[in-house]
Design a protein that fits this description.
Blueprint: E1 4-7, H1 11-30, H2 47-71, H3 79-82, H4 87-105, H5 110-115, H6 126-142, H7 146-171, H8 194-212, H9 221-242, H10 245-266, H11 272-288, H12 302-308, H13 310-315, H14 322-337, H15 358-361, H16 368-371, H17 390-425, H18 431-450, H19 458-474, H20 494-500, E2 506-509, H21 514-553, H22 557-570, H23 575-589, H24 595-610, H25 620-636, H26 638-655, H27 660-672, H28 676-686, H29 698-710, H30 714-726, H31 732-742
Antiparallel strand pairs: 1-2
């Protein structure tokens, strides 16, 4: 029988512990910065972030399991899990995962709800949530000292300052990641979208302020405030350059909460320095908004003009929230009515079993973009994939179960925040820690406000979970775990002891580590396979597609086709290369020398596009492309392909019932296939629907007039010809010639 002995952590265990911390710090620092040149990747600002977030999550799993196997102990419960005060936050994350997973399992398209509509891109699916929860759980259970907290806050602050610098460059026309860089009135930063960038910086500015307050005693008030203002000035200017009114409001709320919490818990005197820093940052952003930029773009004063227009966004009929109100209204109708495509008519569409159940569990993660259009509402030409409101979006995708789960998490975080603020007021933690608490909670409050009209993205979602994990970790800390004075550089040899302070010694069982090592090896292998298939594969495909687009733009269509074919072969589940290759083959077929060769080329294009339906049978991008291909096939041989073209166009219209564009294409397909009366009927029914193109309906007039002529009703077509001529539509002359030639 093997004997057991107690011993402290060996050097290898210390190395693993340091590697785990380095991994979460790298995740926090690098994910928001991740962006590459637009010629290197399709989704140059999005795909790299998802790649790093999932890579670090898988690496953390491997490292934690390896550490567990190294100790040779049973399944240990970390102190964080055993601390009564922090347990509610840790356990409240579990219902969120359960609700999301249950919703994914009953989703009409579970694969989409698991990995998203496009694997490797940002999504709200189970895989994305798991990547956030892994980092959250590791931080919540392993953050044990003030030194670690400061390192975490520096990992947030430094990238945020760099992002601010980058935004400054974009504003003045310096952007190393774009081919056609020019001064921008709304900067996307490293996020590809101004709203996403501003949403991230809302989280970082209060944390940067909180971090710097630890050095208050080393400087005079004005010197300290000036340095603090410099740290947040670039971030504030970047938000100003995004012109995101929702983010401006949310940041203002976050800063007010930060100052109020600090003043209430530690006294009014301590907020002088951060208050002056905030004034400095706002002044810097205001001044920079008036600095002229090169070229013809006039950005002077846009920041304050946008700020002054905040009120009209709520009250004006054309205000910034008008579109949001419509999305919310339609989304709530979708949640209440649970509309779905007629699977009796279209048997290749997925079933929505037990429709009333989906008010409880939702349509499934990442299903909003497919459920929303089914409402058939005609007020919006756009097809949003998010409700732009966290509560409404959660209701549609994860249902009442998801709303309850997130409410439990919100209550747990709020209760923890209240405990921490009371502890700071009672003087049981150093002053700089009180500022950290105020910064954490202010960032989360600002985040909550912003998400009432915003849309989350991988970087800000990841940081939100990191902050929640930090609140869970520090709750209930003893005074020994905090340091009275923060230091930028720890003394040699102390960092390791601080990292492991509070870690209980483990039981090392000689000769009984075989099962743990075997489990660790299996976990490592599974993580490696998952990383290669789900993380690396999509990144490689994005690279091939970007290279194909560059080749196409430079006049090398053959090379572009080869690259797209390689992308499809290497990762068949990816829809984007299939769509691009299908469109390329469609264009290429038009140059064929004979009708048979052209039909063969179109059939090849259709086969490539139809491969996207294996994973996502409701991908209306693919259905639109397939409709255009089959429409040309019907134009060449209506007897053979007319029925196929009509069926394809009808499915597209069924997926997007409230939009004119697919019905317009259906009417055109019916015209091409010789169904003239039906074409006239569908064109008439399409009028009044929302349209992304041809809002005046001139093309519908063309389809109707041509159908009338083909059916022998020329007299009825004459008034429509006159309308087309007088419309000023750019293609009016061509359409009229076509009509006259058909007479």
């Amino acid at each position: 029988m093997a004997t057991s002995q107690r011993r402290a952590f060996p050097r290898s265990a210390l190395t693993l512990a340091l590697a785990i911390e380095a991994c979460w710090l790298a995740s926090v620092a690098l994910v928001p910065l991740a962006a590459v040149h637009q010629d290197w990747l399709v989704g140059a600002s999005e795909v790299p972030k998802v790649f790093l977030q999932r890579t670090f999550a898988l690496l953390l799993i491997v490292l934690v399991v390896a550490e567990w196997a190294r100790t040779g102990a049973g399944f240990p419960l970390m102190r964080g899990w055993l601390t009564i005060r922090s347990r509610p936050i840790l356990l409240s994350a579990l219902p969120v995962l359960v609700a999301t997973s249950v919703s994914a399992m009953v989703s009409p398209m579970p694969v989409v709800s698991l990995l998203g509509p496009d694997v490797g891109w940002d999504s709200f699916g189970v895989a994305s949530l798991l990547s956030y929860l892994v980092v959250f759980a590791v931080i919540a259970t392993r953050l044990r000292s003030g030194a670690q907290v400061r390192r975490l806050l520096w990992a947030v602050t430094v990238p945020a300052v760099l992002i601010g610098w980058y935004g400054m460059g974009q504003h003045f026309g310096i952007d190393l990641l774009r081919v056609d860089a020019s001064p921008s009135s709304r900067v996307p930063l490293t996020f590809g979208n101004p709203i996403f960038g501003a949403a991230y910086l809302i989280l970082t500015i209060p944390l940067t302020l909180a971090l710097w307050q630890g050095w208050r005693q080393r400087y005079s008030l004005m010197s300290h405030a000036a340095i603090g203002g410099a740290l947040i000035s670039l971030q504030a200017a970047a938000i100003a350059f995004t012109l995101s009114r929702g983010s401006m409001i949310s940041l203002a709320v976050a800063l007010v909460v930060f100052l109020a919490m600090a003043a209430w818990s530690m006294g009014r005197e301590v907020v002088k320095a951060p208050a002056v820093s905030i004034v400095v940052a706002i002044g810097f952003a205001f001044v920079m908004s008036y600095v002229p930029v090169p070229g013809d773009v006039d950005t002077s004063g846009q920041f304050d003009e946008r700020l002054l227009s905040v009120g009209s966004a709520f009250t004006s009929a054309g205000g910034g929230l008008t579109g949001r109100f419509t999305i919310w209204d339609v989304s709530l109708d979708v949640y209440a009515d649970v509309p779905w495509v007629d699977t009796g008519r279209f048997d290749d569409m997925p079933e929505l079993s037990w429709a009333p159940l989906h008010q409880v569990v939702g349509y499934g993660p990442d299903m909003f973009g497919y459920a929303f259009p089914l409402a058939g509402d005609t007020r919006m030409a756009s097809r949003p994939n998010h409700a732009h409101n966290a509560i409404v979006h959660t209701a549609v995708e994860v249902g009442a179960l998801g709303l309850i789960a997130y409410a439990v998490l919100l209550v747990a975080v709020a209760a923890a925040g209240l405990r921490l603020v009371r502890s700071a007021r009672a003087g049981s933690m150093p002053t700089w820690v009180g500022f950290v608490v105020a910064g954490l909670l202010a960032s989360l409050v600002g985040r909550f406000v912003e998400q009432m009209a915003g849309k989350p993205q991988v970087a800000d979602l990841a940081l939100t979970w990191v902050l929640i994990g930090t609140v869970a970790a520090v709750l209930g800390w003893t005074a020994e775990q905090w340091e009275a004075e923060p230091a930028l550089v720890s003394e040699r040899g102390k960092s390791g002891r601080r990292l492991l302070r509070g870690q209980r010694q483990v039981q090392v069982v000689g000769g009984r580590r075989g099962p743990q090592v075997a489990i660790a090896v299996v976990v490592g292998l599974v993580a490696t396979v998952a990383w290669w298939q789900v993380v690396v594969g999509p990144l490689s495909v994005s690279s091939l597609v970007a290279r194909a687009e560059v080749a196409s733009e430079s006049g090398r269509p053959v090379r572009a086709g080869e690259l797209l074919e390689s992308a499809v072969e290497s990762y068949p589940a990816a829809a984007v290369p299939r769509l691009l290759l299908g469109r390329g083959l469609l264009l290429g077929s038009r140059a064929a020398s004979t009708q048979d060769l052209r039909i063969a080329g179109l059939q090849e294009a259709l086969g490539v596009v139809e491969g996207a339906f294996d994973r996502n049978p409701m991908d209306y991008r693919a259905w639109v492309t397939a409709g255009k291909i089959t429409q040309e096939m019907a134009a060449l041989d209506a007897a053979r392909f007319g029925e196929l073209a009509i069926a394809t166009a009808e499915k597209t219209a069924a997926l997007l019932p409230g939009y004119r564009d697919p019905r317009e294409q259906l009417a055109l397909t019916l015209l091409v296939a010789g169904e003239y009366d039906r074409a006239i009927e569908v064109a008439a029914g399409a009028r009044g629907l929302a349209a992304t193109t041809d809002p005046d309906g001139v093309y519908l007039d063309y389809i109707t007039a041509k159908s009338l002529i083909r059916s022998g009703r020329v007299d009825e077509a004459v008034p429509l010809i006159a309308q087309i001529v007088g419309s000023g539509y750019v293609d009016a002359a061509v359409l009229v010639q076509d009509l006259q030639a058909s007479e």
